[in-house]
Structure formats: C-alpha cells, structure tokens
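Following up on my earlier thread - several people asked me to post the actual chain instead of describing it. Fair enough. Here it is, all 385 residues.
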Amino acid sequence: MTKSVLHLGTYLQGGAGLILKDLAIHQQDNGLKVRVIVSRTCYPGYENYPEYLEDLKSKEIEVVLVDSLFKRSDGLNAQVVDFLKRQYGEDPPEIIHAHASIPAKIGKEFNKQMGDVSIPVIQTMQGWGRNKTPEQEARDKEIMNQLDAIVAVSEASKNILLEKGVRESLIQVIHNGVGERGVRLPPNQNVLRRIEAFRMRYDVILGCVGSVCKRKNQVVLLNAVQVLSEKGTSIGLVLIGENDTRNSLNSEILESEMRERVLLTGYTANARDLTKYFDLFCLPSLSEGLPLSILECFCDRVPVIASNICSVKEVIQHGKTGHLFDPTNVEEIVDSIENYLAMSSREKNNLIDNAEKEYEQRFRLSLMLERYKELYKEVTHNQTP
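Reply from S.P.:
Thanks for posting it. Predicted structure:
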C-alpha cells in the first residue's frame, strides 16, 4: 500500500488544480503522507487560486511554492530538483504524481539523482497545449515516454498522445470526477449581488465558467447573444473567470453594442455555486481535456450546451444529456439556445435527469479516486526493487 505521494504541478488553478487538490485531500484523509509543490511566480493567466491553497492548508497538507515548475528553463527547473533533494532526500515519496510535462521532467530528474532509490513517476495530462512549438512537443513526448504511467482524462486526450508518439502501453484513461453537492463555502457576496441584479434585467441568463481566453472561445457567445437580442430574446450573458490579458476579449466586450448585456465577474472563488443562477450553461471551447464545469453542472442539475469537440462528446449525448454545436458557427449556437428554450418543462427536466444519471454512473469523484488508487498500486508493484 502506498504511504506517501509527492504531487508536482504548475499551478493550483482551474480544473487541473482542482483535481490535484481533491486527490491530495482524499489521500491525506486516508492516511497517506502528502506533499504538494507548485510554482511561486505568477504570470498573466497563470496563478494559484487562494481557496485551493486554503483548502490544502486546512487539511495540514504541506504545500510549497518554488520556481519554477512552469517555465521551460533548465536552470529554473534544476532549482526545483535541488529543493526536492534538500527537502525530501532523506524522506523520499513512494510515488511522484506530476500534473504536466515540466513537473514530470522535474520528478524524473529528482528520481535519477536519488541513486539507489527508485520512485515511480506518473503524469496526468489534462490537455495538450495548443501553442507548443514542434521542439516543445518533441521534448514533451520524450519526457512522457520515460514515465511509469500517463493518465489521459479522456479517450480524445489519449488519441492526441498517440498521434504525438507517446507509447500506448503507458497510457490509461481515467475520467475526471467531481464531488457531489454539499456544504461549501459561499460564493463571493459582491459577485452574487451583481449576478442577482443582472438577472432582474433579462428573461434568460446564459452563463459560462472558465478563464476568459481564446481557447475557451467566449467571444462567440457575445455574437450569439447579439443575434438573439436582435430577434427579440431578452437574454444576458454572465462570464465567470479570470481574464487572460493576452487576449482582447475584454476590450471587444467593452467596445461592443452588446456590452450592457454582458456581465464579466472576473475570478471568483467557489464559482460552481453561482451556476444555479444560469438558465443555461454554455461551454464553447475550441479544445478541452475533460471539462469539470460540465460535470459539475450535470451533478448540480444545471442544463448544458457545449462544443461538439471530441472530449465533450464523451460526456454529452446530444439530445439526451445536453446539446452540442460547432463552436465556430454562431448560427448553430443560436439554434441550440433557441431549441432548449423552446422545450417544455417536462423535456427540460428529462434532459437534466439524464445528465444527473450520467454523472452518477461515470463522473463521481469517488470513481476517479478509486481508479487512481488502483494505478498507484500497479506502478508500485511493477517497480523494480
């Protein structure tokens, strides 16, 4: 049985950070010695969420911020390896669980420098970056092919890895999972009041949760809302998530005729509890690993429409648990919204019931945690003494 694990991540942020946090807390609650190392210095679009840090601290899990597990810099990466040797050389973990390629590289180097001590290193891949250079892709493939196991969070992610040249024998698919509704800290009251006031102005509230960026593609929702408003629909759009300053969506909204119909909340803790104020959740992403926001909506009985990209199609059965659309086609998005709004109350409830059942059967947090427990046993058993 595994007794200690070292989690290495870039940042405690978004869905990937939530998975890392939930794994660490569950493992600590079950008697493992858990340590978490992530990057200290933040950059536009990359940060550690304060509530994630607080949740880990409340469980007395050791969290250390060190530079850098994010930058592709041999020098900065070596600093982290040196820190790990000083901090854990006399008390090494039984498993290193990396949550991106650079942390995996650091974990392998730390293991190498431990000499006779052999520590299995696994990596969870939430998604394959869209902006990697060919050289970076080649380096990431090289790193992955040296690991003991790789977790792809969807079949679509696994297929990407295979296309990139990662060995199939290393890859396991473990779907992301989310916790059930329960007692959570309340959302930011200022943001809540803004949403409640915004709701009073429109008959329909369309919402999206996630970093406001090109990959999430929220700009297409602005266009859809404009079309719907011109057709006479009383609709407003709520975007919850930090703004990636590398894109111009903020300025596009502020300069748009639709600016009065859009509420940008920025980053807010416990955003999940705000989705109940949406009439319809819409995720128009161009790429995803396996989006936790959809799983949370399934669990919390919030209706969903989303992109017809491969990973999302693994979650949503079109017409049964939600509706799918081409994220580059505004007319399809408008049709999806109108089709949902035209459904009877019974039809809407059937859609929501089906989605909740899908969550229960495939995407509960407990299912994901059990799969990782099995993987840990497998890699430690296969480790050569």
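The domain at 189-362 is CATH 3.40.50.2000 (Rossmann fold). That should answer part of your original question.
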